[in-house]
Amino acid sequence: MKNLQGCRQQLGQAMTEMVVASAFVVVPLFLIVPMVGKYIDMKHAAVSSARYAAWERTVYFNTATLDNQPSGFTGFSAGHFPVKSNGTLASEAQLRIFSEASDPVTGSATKLGREFWTYHNGGSMYSPPLTEKASVNSNQYTPDKTAGIARTLVQGLGSVVSFITGILPFSSSKFDAINMRGATDVSVGMSVEPTPTFTNLRGDTAGLVDTGTQGLTMLAKAGVLSQTWSAGGGAHLQSQAQALAPTKLIGDIFNLISIPGIGSGQDLVAAALLTPEFSSSNLVFGQMDIDALPRDKFAVPEFPAADDPNNSLCNDKGFCRE
Fold first, then answer.
1. For the chain, give me the number of helices (H) and strands (E)?
2. What is the SS3 assignment for 14?
3. Is the pTM here over 0.85, yes or no?
4. 134: which of 5, 84, 90, 169 fits an S-S bond (Cβ 3.0–4.6 Å)?
């Protein structure tokens, strides 16, 4: 009889516990876990946007980085180099990352945000003004932990070398490739819309806890140190490197003299001293071979002729690639 009364007292207890657990545990989890996951996805988007803008600067020049290129980089006038402004990078980072994959990545954005970024009531989690873009700063000084002392010394040394190698008007080479402005930093701030108002069963918000998302912003930063300088061809690389070879000046001095029928001043000295080894065809002062392959990796072909100007596989010494 006692056992029967105990069983009657426990009727509906499991259902009551389930209702209580659902109200205080399960339902909040169903609301909070997806929202936190969407916040994490937005944070990843902010990081991806900053990294995208920073990495693009390793490939694309802007006006400031073009002005910092060394002399003799004649490819600039031909427009052979990719150029993107900081504003363009910021717009692309916004269009590519903060919108749907099916949206175009050119032009200007008309609507930002992804369909996934919504609250439980359908409200958007990210609907900022179109002016909210990444902040891209290019052509910054190289980071220096010595309060700029090391950077100043290196830049000063480069200026001295550039002055010395460029002061001689008859010299065909000049070294001015030292550039201490190669850093790019990007910062992204995604303003998150506040969570919708939660109400109790009576329809009011009395006694409810504030979610604290008012003014929440997803912040991300990225930086890259990239000297966006590439040699403007083999001749440009050779000219910059030869400026550091003192013997190159000897050849430039000899080339100031040109005698018809004899050649340069070097050829005149070779003829006067009866030393053909000293002639300009056999001795090149400051010679630098930009092709590092050893000569045993070359062969003299039967066809095409080694002296054929259309044969790009052969060098001026008659050696050609196999």
1. 10, 7
2. helix
3. no
4. 90
Rounded Cα–Cα distance for residues 100 and 142 (Å): 36
Tokens of 306: 């080694």
Point out which residues pair with 49 in neighbouring strands.
none
Q: Tokens 């504030």 appear where?
A: 210
| Domain layout of the chain by residue ranges | 13-200+213-231, 236-321
Tell me: the pLDDT tens digits for 76-133?
Answer: 555 567 788 888 888 888 888 888 777 766 655 566 788 888 887 788 888 877 677 8
Residue 43 CB partners (closer than 8 Å, separation 6+): 218, 220
Give me the residue label for tokens 């991806």: 48
- DSSP lists the bridge partners of residue 190 as 218
| pLDDT 10s digits, 28-46 | 666 678 888 888 999 999 9
Cβ contact 50:221 at 8 Å: yes
d(CA 175, CA 163): 9
